[in-house]
Predict the 3D structure of the following.
Amino acid sequence: MGRKAALGGILTAVSLIFLYFAFYLPSMKLTMYFLTGIIPGLVLVEMGVRQAWMLYGATSMLSFIMLGNVVNTIPYILIFGLYPIIKFYIEKTRRLIIQIPLKLAFFNIAIVLAYVICTKLFALNIATALPIGWIIIGIQPAYLLYDYIFTRVIFYYCDRVRIKWRKDLS
């Protein structure tokens, strides 16, 4: 029990560090969000879905409190941090023909919600660049690529890193 709490605390701190870098290194923003999103996936593999939810919640709340930039926290809260857990539930179906539409539905809902929050709540002027329909259509292939890369990273961790880590603990 104490080992899970310690690992959860360390990984929450690492998530906050990556979010900090995402806020203050604009050229690395997507990379840092991706790395921050990997961490709940690793917690899911190591400790289960309950701890992944706890890490997601703790990182979301602490990012508001500690980092102070609410607008830049939205991508983590709505997409990158939540996605590994939603992906876990979606992939329980084991049917690719069902998984892809569900993943795209989650992503589209998250993008629309982020768009509405940014434009209505924070009065950001995103609408002048592109309408939301074009944003959703244009970004879906990138999202499917993100899903593929995310899956490969988790498989790599399970096949290579996790086995070595488990052997070192014995």
